[in-house]
Amino acid sequence: MNSIDWFILFTTLILIVVYGTWKSRGSVNIDGYLLGNKSLPWWNVCLSIMATQASAITFLSTPGQAYEDGMRFLQFYFGLPLAMVILSITAVPLYHRLKVYTAYEYLETRFDLKTRSLAALFFLMLRGLSVGITIYAPALILSAILDWNINLTTIFIGSLVMIYTVSGGTKAVSMTQKYQLTIIMMGMIIAGLTAFYKLPNDITFTEAFQVAGEMGKLNLINLSFDLSDRYNIWSGLIGGLFLFLSYFGADQSQVGRYLGGKSVSESRLGLLFNGLLKVPMQFVILYIGILVFVFYQFYQAPVFHNQSLKGKAMQTEFAAAITSLETEYDNLFVKKKKAAENLIGAIRKDDRALIDQSRESMEAIQNTEKGIRSQVKEKISAAIPGANTLDKDYVFITFVMTYLPHGLIGLLLAVVFSAAMASTSSELNALASTTTVDIYKRSVNANGNEYHYVKASKWFTAGWAVFGMLFASIANQAENLIQFVNIIGSIFYGTLLGIFLSAFYLKYIKSNAIFIAGIVAEAVIVYCYFFTKVAFLLYNIIGCLVVVALGFIIQFVENKIIKKASR
Amino acid sequence: MEERWRSWYWLVMIVLAVQIVIYLFITNSFQ
Questions:
Q1: Which residue of B lies nearest to A270 if distances are taken between CA atoms?
Q2: Do A81 and B1 lie within an 8 Å CB cutoff?
Q3: Do A81 and B24 count as a contact with CB atoms less than 8 A apart?
Q4: pLDDT the model gives residue A91
């Protein structure tokens, strides 16, 4: 990082905050503050939805995932376009017609107050905890890269978001997100092109693609059926459909984005374009990781990508062992580069036997590399007990810091900060909307005026931001807590989806039945989490099915009892 | 577009299907 990078980073961040605060000033009523006066065109709805879903970890971790594991993660998103179509048919017109501020408000119209409060409470628990991790996860990586204190990095990100989200509400969130996502995609594509243009002169895009394919990185589709493994097409289509139906239909962080659309048509188009663009966008982000992988066939890759952690390990008595492994790794690179050049030569000759021979020799080298890397990780673990030696989240950002020219480094760091801010702002805004509309205004103080509720929303936004930052500093001490929060969506989403699907489609089920079914389903999921090894992706399906099935049974019994009593 | 969508829904699903076919082709060409 030099002065140009710092200038670009801080200028970008300050401009976003000032722009968001300035453009959204003067929201004096609750419609303006929580729905942005329903003024968003479809393209802004779409950008807001995409910026909310793609947190900083998406851009840090996804290229690293492709680098290590190939592109099979893409299948996870195949259910998303289907979910967009279903929600466009059902949720969008319904929410617009009822003029709701939150998704949970609709549940009172369809069921009763206790069901609405239960769903709102589930949402506040899952999102309230995960907003802390949305800030913490990128802060952890950025603090290592920039050599900042982790808690100060968390406070820095949280405070930037708080300034414009508190002052401008929903309008500030969506106004800033369109620029944040533009900066993000621009930065990511520049990083990918840099990786490609730094390849040895004569390697074409097609040849780079073929090298990745021969090395098994283009494993885009797996047709085997196993719902407990998230990396096959059926998990993506079925498990992904359930997950994205609940995320976009029952999570206020997303519902709040398309409720701000000018009309049903604008909201619907926003969702449908998200369905058209999301899979290609993930393809591009994963492919950037693939380009970094090909780049590292011709340039020396670091033996361990989290340089900061390795630096700390080098201060201990394990330094000599790590250095010796690193030398072994560096010597191996000479062979790897030669093998990669042979592979390119074989591809040009289109000689299948020669391609296979080169590939086998590269795979053998790669396996030796993996062995050395895992030994290095063991040494680092021994040197720093409790350290997280999973370094795939650092692959992309370390590449950026090492190989991108000055100026672009600043831009890419602005990308990571912007992504963290964009998703955090939506989450804080949704938490404040739900707290104000579903809890405070409905059950605590129903007699306030517009000004009072806007003020309350601002306080709730600030309160949730402070809670998120505090939670992040606690998470820093507990790895288990982070793992729990990462799957907390799966714990509540199935039940929420079951409640909403019953509300949309199953008129037979009434309020008491759905309320009891919701609580029992949640207990079943919590039991699954603590006492079984059921895959997390299945929680969404199990929770949803338990709510619907139990709702039917309880309603049937209730009807019988009422019939008996009336005789 | 005031306050026919079927063709939009089909478009989204067809684009997904076309992508899956392309990805399947890429996957199979390296196996």
A1: B8
A2: no
A3: no
A4: 92
Q: Please tell me the distance in Å from A96's CA to the nearest CA on chain B.
A: 10
Query: Which of A430, A85, A428 lies closest to A274 in space, CA to CA?
Result: A85
- Mean pLDDT value across chain A: 88
CB A150 within 8 A of CB A139: yes
- What are the pLDDT digits (tens) for A78-119? 999 999 999 998 899 989 878 888 999 999 988 989 899 999
N-term to C-term CA, chain A: 81
CATH superfamily of the domain spanning A3-21+32-295+403-475 = Sodium/glucose cotransporter (1.20.1730.10)
Burial of A178 (0-12, 13-18, 19+ CB in 10 A): middle
Q: Which two structure tokens, joined as six digits, stand for B24?
A: 């399947």
Which residues, other chains included, contact A244 with Cβ-Cβ below 8 Å and sequence gap of 6+? A79, A80, A83, A84
Residues of A within an 8 Å Cβ radius of B = 74, 78, 81-82, 84-85, 88-89, 213-214, 216, 218-222, 233, 263-266, 268-269, 272, 275-276, 279-280
Structural contact between residues A516 and A506, judged by C-beta atoms closer than 8 angstroms: no
Q: Please, which pLDDT band fits residue B2 given cuts at 50, 70 and 90?
A: very low
Please answer yes or no on whether B27 and A218 come within 8 Å at the CB atom: yes
